[in-house]
TrEMBL record:
The keyword Transport applies. It comes from Ferirhizobium litorale. This is Dipeptide ABC transporter ATP-binding protein. It is found in: Cell inner membrane. PROSITE patterns: ABC_TRANSPORTER_1 (PS00211), ABC_TRANSPORTER_2 (PS50893). It is a peripheral membrane protein. Residues 5-254 form the ABC transporter domain. InterPro entries: AAA+_ATPase, ABC_transp_ATP-bind, ABC_transporter-like_ATP-bd, ABC_transporter-like_CS, Oligopep_ABC_C, P-loop_NTPase. NCBIfam families: PRK11308.1. Belongs to the ABC transporter superfamily. Pfam families: ABC_tran (PF00005), oligo_HPY (PF08352). Its main location: membrane. Keywords: ATP-binding, Nucleotide-binding, Transport.
Length: 275
């Protein structure tokens, strides 16, 4: 089966210009990273601050260019330099950030936030746009009455539901989730993770899930990639990586991580695996 996303040897260098006091230098944020994610699966990318997770997320979402390497969506090559990138290709990948409040326009009503991608990218009429937004609100566990409300009228978990709904409005092939639950309380984290798992089941969505939290990754990932100073030091199935970590950094990372209370997620996944 052709993977939804394939990355081959992706690199990203940042050139930091010099000054009177400092020499110019190059930061190798991502160094030759390769991976593939099949439809309906979740790849978790784990690592501590500064390891290159967000840079990789921005490359995969086509927000930032890569310096070299190849990226394919459904077997089709992406212009990673972003010189001839089409909007059709760009809309195949959507992103949800850690802090939805920072990405939801506070002056716009939820209905406008959800219909905006349709206005920009499609010729769908106003009634149909409204219907689709209403349907999506329900899919993410919100209600029709929320359509006319503003982001500040929602809790953090609800705002993240809105961000997920917006990301899904254009039927993307891939969702990049950049620390999507890190800013939420534990119980709300579990609800949002359960929602993501339900949506994945229903729409056969493919996820790249960026996280520093191994207890979350343990329960949502099919495959895990551990990054360290821009390199993928570990890559394999969740079972392989968790039961038999190879790299000394992964071993240290696992040893240092407390187990969070994600029992409801665990139970849900057990049900999913049994089905
Ligand atoms: N625009 C930029 N210009 C220069 N250096 C950058 C830029 N963006 C990231 N970097 C550097 O690239 C490296 C990787 O950063 P990145 O933000 O991808 O890491 P991260 O793992 O996502 O960290 P965090 O979880 O703190 O966001 C870091 O050394 C960072 O300082």
């Amino acid at each position: 089966m052709t993977p939804v996303l394939e990355a081959r040897d992706l690199t990203r260098d940042y050139h930091i210009p010099g000054s009177f006091f400092k020499k110019a230098r190059t930061v190798h944020a991502v160094k030759g990273v390769s991976f593939a994610v099949e439809q309906g699966k979740t790849l978790a990318i784990v690592g501590e601050s500064g390891c290159g997770k967000s840079t990789l997320a921005r490359i995969v979402t086509m927000i930032d260019p890569a310096t070299s390497g190849d990226m394919l969506i459904d077997g089709q090559k992406v212009d990673i330099a972003r010189e001839t990138l089409t909007s059709d290709m760009r809309r195949k990948v959507q992103i949800v950030f850690q802090n939805p409040y920072g990405t939801l326009n506070p002056r716009k009503k939820i209905g406008d936030i959800l219909t905006e991608p349709l206005i920009i990218n499609t010729k769908i009429g106003a009634d149909e746009r409204r219907d689709r937004a209403m349907a999506m609100l329900k899919k993410v566990g919100l209600e029709e009455k929320h359509y006319g409300r503003y982001p500040h009228m929602f809790s953090g978990g609800q705002r993240q539901r809105v961000a997920i709904a917006r990301a899904l409005m254009l039927n993307p092939r891939l969702l990049v989730l950049d620390e999507p639950v890190s800013a939420l309380d534990l119980s709300v984290q579990a609800q949002v993770l359960n929602l993501l798992a339900d949506l994945q089941d229903e729409f056969q969505l493919t996820y790249v899930f960026i996280s520093h939290d191994l207890s979350v990754v343990r329960y949502i990932a099919d495959d895990v990639m551990v990054m360290y100073y821009g390199e993928a030091v570990e890559y394999g199935s969740r079972e392989e990586v968790f039961s038999n970590p190879q790299h000394s950094y992964t071993k240290t990372l696992f040893a240092a991580t407390p187990r969070a209370d994600v029992e409801s997620i665990k139970a849900r996944l057990a049900r999913k695996n049994a089905a």
